[in-house]
Every structure is written in C-alpha cells, then in structure tokens.
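Researcher: Structure prediction, please.
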Amino acid sequence: MICTTMFHGLAQGQCRALGMPDLPLFVIPHPLGGLTRDEVEQRAELAFAPLLEWIKGGAR
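Model: Predicted structure follows.
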C-alpha cells in the first residue's frame, strides 16, 4: 500500500483493524492535493527508484 506521511499512522491503524498488521506500507511525502501535474510527475519520478527497491526487498 502507498500512503503519504500524513496518513501513515492512520494506514497502520487500518491495517491492524483489518487483521493485516504486517501489510507493508510505502510512504511518500505529503501533500499530493493541490500540486500541479508537473509537481506530481516530479514526485513520482523521485519515488520510482525507491519504490522498486522496496518491492525487490520484499516490501518490509
């Protein structure tokens, strides 16, 4: 699951509540709302390599 820093704690709580306390979370900087398309694309480009490493590493 991917979430922003602002919602990391909430996502962890939901994972526990849904019986998936060990579900891996990939956290990206908050906020996304209000960003221009170019800003979102830049954030996606910055997150892509770390996301691939996170996936390859077993998403711990």
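Model: Residues 28 and 47 are 7 Å apart (CA to CA).
Researcher: Thanks, that helps.
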